[in-house]
């Protein structure tokens, strides 16, 4: 990107140059894309002053072109150009970069990614993702039970000499 300075009026202009192919009003270069203006800029081709008529010929005029003629006998205190000037919006530009992600097939993914992908199709419950509490949702049936008692038999004497 380069800048040019118009010395008479002290304006600084941004100049963008790129080689490429034009598609959909955009210049597609190898490094960047530049938006092209929809219409070429209107320019004054000639001004003829003859008698009571002033003839202004425009170059690249369209149905949207407007000509404002401002005349005064003396130098005005303030510039009329700034009051009549239409602000120009700058054309867009963007840099062509490498793709940030690439889709690959047949690649092994980790267990965590596989778990996340498989959980997408599961039924979703609020809260954590633990197994549902089956005993709270389906309690056991309450019924009469019988319990018995079993006594343990007497065992052998412990032989402490085996431990060295």
Describe the protein in words.
The chain has a domain at 2-95. β6 and β7 (53-59) form a beta hairpin. The protein has a four-stranded antiparallel beta sheet with strand order 3-4-5-8, with no helix packed on it. It has helices at 80-84, 111-119, 134-137; strands at 2-6, 11-15, 20-23, 26-29, 32-35, 43-50, 53-59, 93-95. Helices cover 11% and strands 24% of the residues. By secondary structure, it is an alpha+beta fold. It contains three helices and eight strands, in the order βββββββαβαα.
Question: Quick recap of the structure?
Answer:
The protein has 164 residues and is an alpha+beta fold. Helix content is 11%, strand content 24%. The strands form 3 sheets. Strands 3-4-5-8 form a 4-stranded antiparallel beta sheet, with no helix packed on it.
Percent range for β-strand residues: 15-25%
SSE order in H/E notation? Answer: EEEEEEEHEHH
The whole-number mean of residue pLDDT values reads 80
Net shape: rod-shaped
Structural class: alpha+beta
Measured on Cα atoms, how large is the radius of gyration?
43 Å
Runs with pLDDT <50, length 5+? Answer: none
Helix content: 10-25%
The number of helical segments is 3
* End-to-end separation: 90 Å
Read across the widest sheet, the strand sequence of neighbours is 3-4-5-8
Total number of strands: 8
Major beta sheet summary:
4 strands, antiparallel
